[in-house]
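Forwarding these from the shared drive since the link keeps breaking.
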Amino acid sequence: MNQVTYRNLKDAFDAFNDLKILVIGDSMIDSYLWGDVDRISPEAPVPVISKTKRESRLGGAANVAINIKALGAQPILASVIGNDGNAQVFKRLLGTQRLSKSGIFESNTRSTTIKTRIISHKQQLLRIDEENSEELDQPTEEAFLNHLLYIMEQAKMDAVIFEDYDKGTITPEIIKHVTGKARELGIPTLVDPKKRNYLNYKNVTLFKPNFKELKEGLNIDHLTHKDYDKIFSALRVMHKEQQIQWILVTLSEQGVLISNSQNYKHTPAKIRDISDVSGAGDTIISIAGVAMAAGLSPWIVSEISNIGGGQVCERSGVVPVNKKQLLEECQLHIPSLD
């Protein structure tokens, strides 16, 4: 990754507008059904909900694309969806968000993931998941991989983000060939991992597990959020064995820790009135991807990402980062880009 020197943060944030980011991963529809409960069913001891409102939103990797767009960059979302009715809803939502459909691959052997949450009086009563979580079958994997490599060749991307939700879109073969192509093109690759592929991500630029994913991925249970030296010792093994340049671990209320194979830096979280932590991880990987594509130092990237992740936790629901607000707070807390 080639670092770029900017006069100040505003110039760096302005540079976001010239970037293209490929987001590869598991996309889904988050559906919400709100209603009132005022009786128990005579058929079984379960509440009866009277529907008052239904809403569908983009989720998973699509939420990362929304955050990238909010930062001013141009995302291309690359996901496998089904050839079904929910796919039509998904594409309509892409249009509403003004996101490109060029990276979307429809498969007759998959279904479009939809998660339906039934909510009454601000309490979630039930969630219904309709999904395939198996890895792509070989013909679909091969076709989707060719689709990805074509986009990388033709669209001149500035970074690649793997947004992995363990739903099967990202496979070891896709990881290997896409990271290889990214190295050939000289662009950074970033990973928001889950357990299935945790050890398959090799030769990537930045790897961003949360603390729980770190412990599960490495099968260690003796760490705490404040054991920074011990966390770094575990990360050094990953740096060596998986040839990962940078690892950014999110530590909830303890902030973030970023490391290379020699050093680490812990950045505490700012004191905030936390409303909802949903989507904070998506925001952090989005900011990191755009900032690294812009050529900012990874040490600075971790500070900006930490601030952005905290900001979205102050708002209810899954909401994208506010670029203007992010810049203003970064200018207060990051005095220099050195």
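-- next protein --
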Amino acid sequence: MEREINITKKADEFLQIFKKGEEFTQELLKENEKLRFRLAQLEDAIERSGDEAKIKLYEDRIKTTEEELNSLKERYRQVEEENKDFAVKYIEVEEENNNLANLYVASYQLHSTLDFNEVLRIVLEIVINLIGAEKFAVLLIEEKTNELVPVATEGMSIANVPKVKFGEGIIGTVAKEGESYFSEHIHNRSNGSEEEPIVGIPLKIKEHVIGVIAIYSLLAQKEKFSNIDYELFNLLAGHAATAIFSSRLYTQSERKLTTIQSFLDLLKEKPRR
């Protein structure tokens, strides 16, 4: 809702800028009419005056014209600046619209299946396409051992991503505190190690953390994160966490149901004679 309000606000600003441009055009037409009228007055006065008076009138005419020209130049500069500002805001609105569309598609994909492996695959694709990550891993908390265990990776082997104790290291701290981590050297580092990710995003359902997305390096064309990227991190983390948790729970339930059904079928079988 807040994002929609921001987009509406920017659209209103665009209309205001457009209206100012229209008003400026009208004012230019009025100023032109005044200049033509003033010119006619000066020409008429020149015809009725002597040489000295003509020179004085010419000087006044030149001075007045220069002042009005400078005024028009200044106003033109202001309108030009407003147009540049409008162009920047238009690009921002277009970018936010594209991100909203991408996020909607991503959210729909995440919640379109209850297959755990399929959800993980979708999460990997989203982090690559929306965030621009090259090497990263998805780790989930194993309640029995109180460790974060890698369940999916991109650009690296899952065997090379170590398990992390809850509360230890960057990943463990992100899981414990539920706050995102961004390295201070994120813009200068092209590669991270499996021990020190450049970004850590908690997968949270309300205040409950179920895992962490650890990013170790970005794609070559991704030089830095924008403000929109940080918003996408927060929104995506919530959607991904919900989808992963639901699909994992469903998969576990299905396995238990299958086991129980097999046991019941075994009990129903007649003993052999």
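Helices lie at 2-47, 51-110, 116-131, 169-177, 227-268. Residues 187-192 have pLDDT under 50 and may be disordered.

- D.
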